[in-house]
Amino acid sequence: MRAIHLLCLTCICDAYSSRNVFRRSLRNPSSNIIFCSDGIPLRSGSQHRSSAGANRALRATDAAATSSAIDRTATAPPSTDAPLSPNTFAGQVERALLSKYPESKIERVLRSWRLLELDYEHREFVGGQQSPPIAADEDGTSRCYQHAPSYVPGLRAVAWWDDVDELPWAKSLAKSYPSIREEFLSVMSDPEKLASDGNNIWAGALTTDAESYGEGWKTLVLLNRGQWDETNAKLFPVTSKAIHKSGVPVAEAFFASMKPRTSIKPHSDFTNFVLTSHLPLVVPENGNNKCRLSVGDETRQWLEGKVILFDTSIYHDAINDSEETRYILMLRVWHSDLTEEERGALQLIYDCLEIPELLSDNPGTVSMAEQRAVMMREFPLKDSAISGGFGSGRGGSIKGKKGKGKNKRKGRGK
Q1: 3-class DSSP assignment, residue 309
Q2: Which of 329, 400, 30 is nearest to 173 (CA)?
Q3: Per-residue pLDDT at 213
Q4: Sign of the torsion formed by the C-alpha atoms of 114, 119, 125 and 131
Q5: Which residue among 28, 104, 366, 403 is least enclosed by CB atoms within 10 Å?
């Protein structure tokens, strides 16, 4: 039984988790699983779009890499009618799902779980789902292809979600942008203290599946698979509270940096049931098209304070063509097409990977494991803890050389 893909949540996923890592977890549920997915801005207006000239230049620069990196084959899901063997870890997880949710309510999640066990990798040209639609890739140059080994059938594959500005949680985060940015700059003004007091600060990718990110992409995790990193949350209380109060359906949250004159090659983050959102905090030469993201066939630029949303199961890439480091707050959010029951079922899968006791035949053991799972997802900061903190000072600028965190854990993806 091969490994299943990680979800891609880069906050905690500084090291993009690969599908192989997630699949290995089925054999070794005690291993640390990292969600992975990189974030790319969504299309929400002409101000986000790069100029036609910039688009052509970027495409010309990346043409060779794109043609070799994108797999344009298509696949069709095999039958998933047969239940999984109860003698396997995957089968025990399936049993746990069915004990908590009616099969009719989580049918797509069950299919997804069985497809993972069958080693299925979904590949599809999704140009027809874009606006305006791309009828076909007749000349083999389109990048509007989805690659999702972690695949829930029936979810829309839209590269850029232009309605993000209408979402309450996005409005809330955009409103909090000034205070989030101020806190970030204040904390970053003392990199030695951040490295000393923080956990796994500015980690890089650890898996071969994350090679496309390169060495220029680093992350600082706040929330991973629904679990807050209490240490880092206390260093960034204003940001953590803003995320928590926004009501965003977040699975991962983290800061991501991209060094000057670096790029991320075209790739997929392997998972179609989470979307990626960015809140750009520091964009060098903001508005001058130096820091760009491409999802599918469209390239846009990061703009400070502008929330974006996109689907990273579709091939995407990024570039920082400036002389300074770019910083964003990145969130992995549940796909909006998922029902409440489906989100709960997916979270239960991750909980089972983290807490195998949830699969016990002993009701008492299961009850204690469920309480532990709830406690692990609790927000660690009280209102009284938000007023102070490492990053509560005003002003500050990014300076000095960043150190490495004292606590070593597996890195995260972009």
Answers
A1: strand
A2: 329
A3: 57
A4: positive
A5: 104
